[in-house]
């Protein structure tokens, strides 16, 4: 009875005397005192209630304290995505309510530092960079040297994880110079320094640095020695040092994740030593650490897996030691599954693109396994299965935005979808501002503010995602082979689809009724043939100075890429990949010739119509055409400057004569005008300069007053039927495995353009003007851009007023058309008029015959 009275008294006291702020702290401290699954569930339930109740800043701060402790425990349990979501909410709450003005609560140590680490672990490099740089800025402002150096250590880990070891080494060396770094920090920095030196193959220096007095841990010293031996391909020596490190494993404090990774490294080493059974045992140990409740010999079901990239390492290695194709594919599919779990938590393009490399290599392994299975059985199902792996690993980020925009087109009034697209556009806009600030000499405060803004947008997108997924569960991007072949039948076309791997090029050929799969070995010789052919177009003189080299290489590459297998097909859809994105297929030669007369050479363009595409899904995609097909054109000209485009005005006059258009010339061709008008026109023409960018500066296209950068283009919303980029290098950009070139063409596709005419190299101004004149003449007549593109090139070759030198393929084959064969915008109406006309004729004939029929009766 007394106990019941005490409980009742406590309940009453807490219910009536405690404020909401105090209740939140009490609940949190109760959880801290007794952390387990039950208390975590209780805390989560209370958190949901508190979120609805908090109003004052002090209550918000108390909730941040709760969430930081919850996030810490979720991290300990290995629930990384849940921990991230909790920390993100706490960080967003802290910054939105400006809680830094209330107390000296250490948001860096409690939230931002672990959040940055979690982003690194889950491969979210964009959010990791933004978060770490933001809290380094905060620490610098407050002169918190400990947090500054801690941030530097985490930045080093981030750059090492993406292979940027030179940057990591520079940060490490700068941080080691600080006299205020703690002993533990100096050891972490020194170990990181050795790791980067090993990765850069500076082995002698790495050995010297490994003997530094800063490194006390024998486990770390032996691990470093193991890594050096491994990089030198001294596998027995590596095993010796690894076993030395293993002896100190029990006395070394490692998380479950770190322990699992240790055994994955052991498995990898045993595979190199050709000891698959030993490797299998190590992988099982690693798996048992991550999934302690699963003790069976078989691979675990998907339901037990979670977003942890160590699983991917385990399943990839397990597949590599299997002799059974089905078992290997099953293991690799589990890797893809975990990769997708990780991907679901990324919101930025950059994180998704950087993480595609591993998926890409895995796809090649799967395709190779299925190619061998196909060769042994000749069953077409293996081709279709291999094709799906290829398609899933090609331009998946671009495909994602296409699917999102199509979903909004189908449900234009859905507030969730409207909000999602708005946030994605805002994300790209802020990213473009951040890139500009980082390229310039901006203040750290501006960069930090933009980084924080991106983190906030990312959090909002993640909050939306489960709601959208619940409402629209079927957002798969898998395609139907039947649909594909039906589309080919409609277009009377054949699809030639390439997958450019590390060791081979795979070529899928789909006709209207059958499919084929070829494997092209990638040797040093074949790579050289491809790169030599591409470099023929670096400048105008290379081909003309040695026509024989061109004719020889153009035919060799034609055969190398197996294009002769479709030589009888009139319409061909080419989906290039890797280096093949920069190959002008229309300039390949179907025969070996000795002539030096360019107009007489047997180019592919003379025999076939080539349409390019990004992937099969883009080819299949049928979007609503823009109602206004009027042309919007920009011609900066850049008169009286070293950028002057002398013949650009001729282009403008040609377009004006052939098409209903609104043109902006010279000073009127501004960037702001383009952004304001672009979404209202069905056809866009840009006659200007462009850059493919590099690993530092993004691709861009020039207007009279300013450049439009790639991320700015991503934030636009276009529905153009056709975009013509009459500018240099619009089809060239930094090449990322799986996603393709980061060029302006991709930017326009992302923004919503359906068909593109782009250039693969720096083009001659006069020849461009001549080709454009012919292009628009034919485009005006038939409204079919792919057909106008081909005819304009043939017209150019057959023009007797153009000299042989100017008929080099350098001058006419730069422009490639990305899109579909399609129908002219007014084809349906023309067809209607045709049928009406036929009906009238039939009726008239019937009327005229009526008297004769009666007479015969």
Automatic annotation (TrEMBL):
This is CHAT domain-containing protein. Residues 567-820 form the CHAT domain. It comes from Snuella lapsa. InterPro entries: CHAT_dom, TPR-like_helical_dom_sf. SUPFAM superfamilies: TPR-like (SSF48452). Keywords: Membrane, Transmembrane, Transmembrane helix. The lineage of its organism: Bacteria, Pseudomonadati, Bacteroidota, Flavobacteriia, Flavobacteriales. It comes from the Bacteria. The chain crosses the membrane at residues 829-850. The keyword Repeat does not apply.
């Amino acid at each position: 009875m007394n106990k019941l009275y005490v409980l009742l008294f406590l309940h009453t006291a807490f219910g009536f005397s405690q404020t909401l702020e105090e209740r939140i702290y009490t609940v949190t401290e109760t959880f801290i005192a007794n952390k387990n699954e039950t208390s975590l569930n209780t805390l989560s339930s209370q958190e949901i209630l508190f979120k609805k109740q908090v109003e004052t800043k002090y209550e918000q701060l108390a909730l941040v304290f709760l969430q930081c402790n919850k996030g810490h425990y979720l991290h300990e349990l290995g629930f990384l995505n849940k921990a991230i979501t909790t920390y993100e909410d706490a960080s967003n709450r802290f910054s939105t309510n400006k809680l830094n003005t209330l107390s000296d609560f250490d948001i860096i140590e409690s939230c931002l530092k672990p959040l940055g680490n979690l982003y690194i672990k889950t491969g979210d490099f964009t959010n990791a960079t933004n978060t770490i740089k933001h809290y380094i800025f905060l620490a610098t402002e407050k002169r918190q040297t400990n947090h500054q150096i801690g941030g530097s250590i985490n930045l080093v880990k981030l750059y090492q994880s993406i292979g940027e070891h030179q940057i990591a080494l520079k940060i490490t060396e700068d941080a080691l110079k600080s006299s205020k770094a703690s002993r533990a920090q100096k050891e972490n920095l020194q170990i990181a320094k050795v790791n980067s030196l090993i990765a850069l193959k500076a082995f002698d220096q790495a050995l010297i640095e490994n003997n530094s007095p800063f490194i006390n841990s024998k486990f770390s010293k032996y691990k470093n020695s193991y890594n050096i031996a491994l990089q030198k391909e001294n596998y027995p020596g590596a095993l010796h040092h690894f076993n030395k490190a293993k002896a100190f494993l029990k006395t070394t404090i490692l998380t479950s994740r770190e322990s699992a990774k240790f055994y994955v490294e052991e498995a990898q080493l045993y595979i190199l030593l050709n000891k698959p059974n030993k490797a299998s045992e190590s992988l099982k140990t690693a798996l048992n650490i991550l999934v302690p409740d699963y003790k069976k010999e078989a691979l675990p079901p998907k339901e037990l897996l979670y977003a942890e990239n160590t699983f991917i390492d385990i399943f990839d290695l397990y597949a590599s030691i299997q002799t059974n194709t089905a078992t290997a594919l099953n293991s690799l599919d589990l890797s893809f599954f975990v990769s997708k779990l990780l991907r679901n938590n990324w919101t930025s393009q950059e994180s998704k693109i950087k993480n595609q490399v591993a998926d890409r290599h895995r796809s090649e392994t799967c395709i190779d396994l299925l190619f061998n299975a196909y060769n042994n059985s000749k069953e077409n199902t293996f081709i279709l299965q291999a094709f799906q792996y290829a398609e899933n690993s090609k331009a998946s980020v671009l495909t994602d935005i296409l699917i999102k925009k199509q979903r909004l087109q189908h449900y234009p009034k859905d507030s969730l979808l409207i909000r999602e697209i708005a946030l994605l556009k805002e994300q790209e806009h802020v990213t473009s501002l951040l890139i500009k600030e980082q390229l310039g000499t901006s203040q750290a405060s501006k960069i930090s503010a933009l980084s924080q803004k991106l983190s906030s947008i990312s959090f909002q997108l993640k909050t939306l995602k489960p709601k959208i997924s619940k409402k629209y569960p079927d957002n798969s991007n898998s395609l139907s082979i039947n649909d594909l072949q039906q589309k080919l039948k409609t277009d009377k076309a054949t699809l030639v689809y390439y997958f450019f791997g590390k060791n081979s090029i795979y070529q899928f050929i789909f006709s209207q009724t059958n499919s084929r799969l070829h494997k092209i070995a990638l040797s040093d010789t074949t790579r050289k043939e491809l790169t030599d052919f591409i470099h023929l177009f670096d400048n105008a003189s290379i081909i003309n100075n040695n026509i024989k080299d061109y004719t020889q290489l153009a035919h060799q590459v034609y055969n190398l890429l197996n294009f002769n297998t479709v030589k009888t097909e009139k319409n061909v859809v080419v989906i290039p990949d890797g280096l093949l994105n920069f190959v002008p297929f229309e300039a390949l030669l179907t025969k070996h010739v000795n002539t030096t007369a360019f107009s007489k050479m047997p180019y592919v363009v003379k025999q076939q119509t080539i349409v390019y595409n990004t992937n099969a899904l883009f080819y299949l995609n049928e979007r609503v055409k823009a109602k206004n097909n009027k042309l919007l054109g920009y011609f900066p000209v850049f008169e009286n400057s070293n950028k002057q485009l002398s013949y650009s005005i001729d282009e403008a006059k040609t377009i004006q004569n052939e098409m209903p258009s609104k043109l902006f010339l010279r000073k009127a061709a501004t960037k702001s005008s383009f952004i304001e008008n672009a979404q209202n026109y069905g056809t866009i023409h840009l006659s200007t300069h462009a850059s493919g960018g590099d690993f530092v500066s993004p691709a861009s296209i020039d207007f009279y007053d300013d450049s439009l950068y790639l991320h700015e283009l991503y934030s636009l919303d276009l529905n153009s039927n056709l975009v013509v980029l009459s500018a240099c290098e619009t089809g060239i950009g930094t090449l990322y495995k799986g996603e393709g070139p980061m060029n302006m063409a991709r930017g326009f596709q992302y923004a919503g353009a359906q068909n593109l005419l782009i250039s693969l190299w720096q083009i001659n101004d006069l020849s461009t003007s001549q080709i454009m004149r012919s292009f628009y003449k034919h485009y005006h007549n038939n409204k079919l851009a792919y057909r106008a593109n081909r005819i304009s090139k043939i017209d150019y070759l057959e023009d007797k007023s153009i000299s042989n030198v100017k008929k080099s393929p350098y001058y006419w084959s730069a422009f490639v058309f990305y899109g579909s064969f399609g129908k002219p915008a007014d084809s349906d109406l023309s067809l209607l008029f045709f049928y009406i006309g036929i009906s009238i004729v039939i009726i008239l004939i019937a009327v005229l015959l009526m008297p004769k029929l009666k007479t015969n009766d």
